[in-house]
Write a structure and sequence with these properties.
Blueprint: H1 7-18, H2 22-35, H3 43-61, E1 83-87, H4 94-102, E2 119-125, E3 128-134, H5 147-151, E4 156-162, H6 168-181, E5 184-187, E6 206-215, H7 223-234, E7 240-242, H8 254-262
Parallel strand pairs: 1-3, 1-4, 4-6, 5-6, 6-7
Antiparallel strand pairs: 2-3
Helix pairs in contact: 1-2, 2-3
């Protein structure tokens, strides 16, 4: 049943999606709750808003008296020019790629689900830094309860697959289906190349501009035809890039590509009468 929310609600929703400040998000959620129409079509929406308010209130206030917060951190405030999540099916080489780009020394053992929790790191390019989050592999046999929380601040994602693996298409399709079930939608449009269309019916859906990264091209004799076959079978319109985390092949294109697609604006200061310091 459609929610039929008001224009006022949609305006608040748009601001909510743009902000990453938890206190501002909490106030916007409360405002959403105040203006959302109360009828059968909004029951699920109102329940979602209440849940988000409760979770965010607990996150902001911290552990209750006498309690301690346990477990690793699963969500990270965006740093640098933008936050990019590395996601995909098992053994795509996400952690090896993350390590190569950030020097994080994150877990990169060659067995499925070696990464259990998100790992942040900074990827530097042209006096700019992008925050890369290595996300645990997405697969039916390995549920990630915190997935949506981890991706809530991401400005985009690198969907990493193993181009040398014969079953990479099926694994990628399964991962995309699981993401969609968790209300995480991969889209081909990036801020500088298209309109980021979103579904107004689902306030808390996550829409991630996506670059399909075909990893391990060093193990493929002729990568380009293989990548074209994968694109055709996946039936997606994501921009693509063929790379190797092992040899570094293709990775020199990633920094400039992210810089252009996210739309980084750099401001340089200068002393009057002198040239600006561009470093």
């Amino acid at each position: 049943m459609p929610t039929n929310v008001t224009p006022e609600f949609k305006k608040i929703q748009a601001v909510y999606r743009r902000t990453s400040d938890p206190h501002e998000k909490l106030e916007l959620l409360r405002e959403m709750m105040r203006v959302v129409p109360k009828h059968k079509g909004t029951e699920h929406l109102r329940a979602d808003i209440k849940t988000k308010i409760k979770e965010l209130t607990e996150d902001i206030s911290g552990p209750s008296k006498g309690a301690t917060r346990t477990g690793p951190q699963v969500a990270f405030r965006s740093e640098g020019a933008g936050q990019i999540a590395l996601i995909g099916p098992p053994n795509g080489g996400k952690s090896a790629l993350h390590d190569r780009l950030t020097g994080s020394h994150s877990t990169s053992e060659a067995y499925p689900f070696a990464t259990q929790f998100p790992q942040p790191g900074m990827f530097r390019h042209a006096n700019t830094a992008f925050q890369l989050i290595d996300v645990p592999s997405v697969a039916a046999e390995h549920p990630i309860p915190f997935l949506a929380d981890t991706l809530q601040h991401a400005d985009g994602c690198l969907f990493v697959i193993d181009l040398a693996q014969p079953g990479c298409v099926e694994l990628a399709q399964q991962a995309m289906e699981i993401l969609a079930e968790r209300r995480v939608h991969l889209i081909p449009e990036w801020p500088q190349t298209g309109s980021l269309e979103r579904d107004d019916e689902d306030v808390f859906a996550v829409f991630l501009p996506t670059l399909l990264v075909a990893n391990k091209v060093d193990l493929v004799e002729d990568p380009q035809p293989e990548l074209e076959i994968v694109e055709d079978l996946l039936q997606v319109e994501f921009p693509t890039m063929a790379v190797s985390a092992t040899t570094g092949a293709g990775l020199d294109h990633l920094g400039p590509w992210l810089f252009d697609q996210i739309g980084v604006v750099r401001v340089y200061t200068k002393v009057p009468g002198q040239e600006a310091d561009m470093h």
